[in-house]
Design goal:
The protein has about 250 residues and is an alpha/beta fold. It contains nine helices and seven strands, in the order ααααβαβαββαβααββ. About 40% of the residues lie in helices and about 20% in strands. Helix 5 links the parallel strand 1 and strand 2. The longest helix is centred in the N-terminal third of the chain and has 19 residues. The chain is globular. The protein starts with a helix and ends in an 11-residue tail after the last strand.
Length: about 250
């Protein structure tokens, strides 16, 4: 499957879900995400999601070096740009991409309010686009959780081939609690519903990375589950073959 991705032929499950996500984030839910990622008042349900996302962002950042000057980082699925801005503040050369042109436009506007030491390269399109180049690190916060496990691992395997030091990503953990919350969430008003997610177990993640298919020289690193009200997601570190091994990816 990873060989297929490298030749530019996306697996059907990835391509189909990508089309759905483009429609969802660029049209159906763009205003809701604009509010969720701002300081605007939101419902109690969304407040728990906002707080959970804040915790997850800080967790992913903690897996990366505090100083990123001279390093090139892909923010894969940048949304409204909070993580990209945080990376730029550390001195990284950030390429931030998202399927939604509307969210990318909003992210660019918001970033102009920050005094950043380096400019962010904003791009609307597929995170797997080879023209984006190569990277020292890749971050993907809650952008791959909507893909079935084989497509998620294939996408990571493709990115691994263009990444030198490491990747910090999230996945939706397969737990009874999350399954129950997803079922309950289907009864919420449409404005409070989350987009469809595809749970995967930590074991599947580790076995996928250890399989060698696209991950030669890579290994699983740290992981942490963040649960806050109606937000559940798991941070996961992938350590690359050229990582500086002083306490993980650094």
């Amino acid at each position: 499957m990873n060989e297929t991705l490298r030749t530019g032929e996306l697996p059907e499950a990835y391509a189909e879900r990508r089309a759905w996500l483009t429609e969802y984030f660029d049209r159906t839910a763009v205003r809701a995400w604009e509010q969720l990622t701002s300081d605007a008042p939101v419902s109690g349900i969304r407040r728990t999601v906002r707080a959970g996302r804040d915790r997850m962002r800080e967790t992913l950042l903690s897996y990366l070096p505090s100083k990123l000057k001279g390093m090139r980082i892909l923010d894969a699925g940048c949304g409204t740009g909070a993580l990209a801005v945080a990376l730029a503040r550390r001195g990284a050369e950030v390429v931030a991409t998202d399927l939604s042109p509307t969210l990318v436009h909003l992210a660019r506007e918001r970033s102009q309010e920050s005094q950043l030491p380096t400019a962010i390269q904003w791009s609307a399109g597929d995170m797997l686009d080879p023209t984006l180049g190569t990277f020292d690190y890749v971050v993907a916060m809650d952008s791959l959780i909507h893909y079935p496990a084989p497509a998620l691992l294939a996408a990571l395997g493709t990115l691994a081939g263009r990444t030198r030091r490491g990747m910090v990503v999230t996945f939706a953990p397969r737990t009874p609690l999350l399954a129950t919350m997803w079922a309950v969430g289907r009864m919420f008003p449409r404005a409070d519903r989350a987009p469809r997610i595809e749970p995967i177990s930590e074991r599947e993640m580790r076995e996928g990375i250890g399989s060698g298919a696209g991950f030669a020289g890579w290994r699983a690193g740290r992981t942490q589950r963040i649960v806050n009200g109606f937000y559940t997601s798991q941070a996961f570190e992938l350590v690359g073959p050229n990582a500086v091994t002083s306490g993980g990816v650094s």
